[in-house]
């Protein structure tokens, strides 16, 4: 499943919660947040964060910890949660697993190859078997694709889902995309120049080959014409006679005639 398909699938699963948020007000948003964070296969939350009723409720003291938790699931990591765990609601097993999946996605932004030791330390996983089960779960959820190198004890990530943007990240992403677009234009222009050069070189080689072929034909005709003229001139001066075996001078011709007699 591609990233675009995954995002579409996640949005479809989030849609019922978005509809529900239109009628949920005040502290009732706490239950909504808990449910969406535990719901399977939902890994993006920006739309729910920006719902008017949710944003209004986020100012309530009892809702603030849950809204903060929703933001961590949206663009934070498991380590962010651990650092503020005393101020946040506890996570159930499904929520913990989901946040760890999202954390691996964030870690892969820095490096596509992540050692088991780094993953275990960052995610508070105690042994390799539990870590590999966690990674396999992320594969099944299509959160990411890759392979586990058990010999080198590392995860090699091929691609991941896209996460929600952090506050202030939008401008940097736009800048990166703009730079990427400029680099792409430069590369395409360079390729066009190389293709044009190749076409021009091929055309010149063809022209030279045709000129060479014409020169060869001209020389062949000259040689052929020159040979015929030599034979005619020799015959006209009486220096030889044409036989089946070649050109003889008069003396050789008379000797040959005498032998035949």
Number of domains: 2
Average of per-residue pLDDT values: 84
Ranges with pLDDT <50 over ≥5 residues? 242-248
Largest sheet: 3 strands, antiparallel
Strand % is 5-15%
Main sheet: strand order: 1-3-2
Rg, please?
A: 42 Å
| Series of H and E elements | HHHHHHHEHHEEHEEH
Explain this structure:
There is one protein chain. With 261 residues, the chain is mainly alpha-helical. It folds into two domains: 3-160, no CATH class; 169-243. Helix content is 66%, strand content 8%. It contains eleven helices and five strands. The strands form two sheets. A three-stranded antiparallel beta sheet has the order 1-3-2. It has a two-stranded antiparallel ribbon with strand order 4-5. It is elongated.
Based on the model shown, name its key terms:
261 residues, mainly alpha, three-stranded antiparallel β-sheet, two-stranded antiparallel sheet, 11 helices, 5 strands, 66% helix, elongated, COPS7/eIF3m
Task: Summarize the topology.
Blueprint: H1 3-21, H2 29-38, H3 46-49, H4 52-57, H5 64-75, H6 78-83, H7 93-108, E1 113-115, H8 116-123, H9 128-140, E2 144-149, E3 154-160, H10 169-236, E4 241-243, E5 246-248, H11 250-260
Antiparallel strand pairs: 1-3, 2-3, 4-5
Helix pairs in contact: 2-5, 7-9
């Amino acid at each position: 499943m591609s990233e675009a398909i995954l995002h579409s699938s996640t949005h479809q699963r989030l849609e019922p919660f978005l509809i529900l948020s239109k009628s949920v007000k005040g502290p009732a948003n706490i239950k909504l947040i808990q449910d969406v964070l535990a719901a399977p296969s939902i890994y993006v939350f920006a739309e729910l964060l920006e719902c008017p009723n949710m944003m209004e409720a986020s100012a309530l003291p009892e809702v603030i910890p849950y809204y903060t938790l929703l933001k961590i699931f949206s663009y934070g990591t498991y380590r962010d949660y651990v650092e503020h765990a005393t101020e946040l609601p506890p996570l159930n097993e499904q929520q913990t697993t989901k946040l760890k999946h999202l954390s691996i996605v964030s870690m892969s932004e820095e490096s596509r190859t992540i050692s088991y030791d780094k993953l275990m330390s960052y995610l508070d996983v105690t042994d390799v078997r539990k870590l590999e089960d966690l990674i396999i779960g992320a594969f099944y959820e299509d959160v990411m694709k890759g392979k586990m190198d058990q010999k080198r004890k590392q995860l090699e990530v091929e691609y991941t889902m896209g996460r929600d943007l952090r506050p202030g990240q939008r401008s940097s992403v736009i800048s990166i995309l703009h730079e990427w677009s400029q680099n792409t234009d430069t590369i395409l222009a360079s390729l066009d120049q190389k293709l044009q050069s190749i076409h021009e070189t091929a055309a010149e080689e063809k022209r030279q080959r045709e000129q060479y072929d014409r020169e060869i034909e001209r020389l062949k005709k000259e040689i052929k014409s020159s040979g015929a003229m030599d034979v005619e001139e020799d015959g006209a001066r009486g220096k030889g006679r044409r036989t089946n075996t070649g050109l003889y001078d008069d003396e050789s011709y008379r000797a040959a005639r005498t032998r035949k007699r």
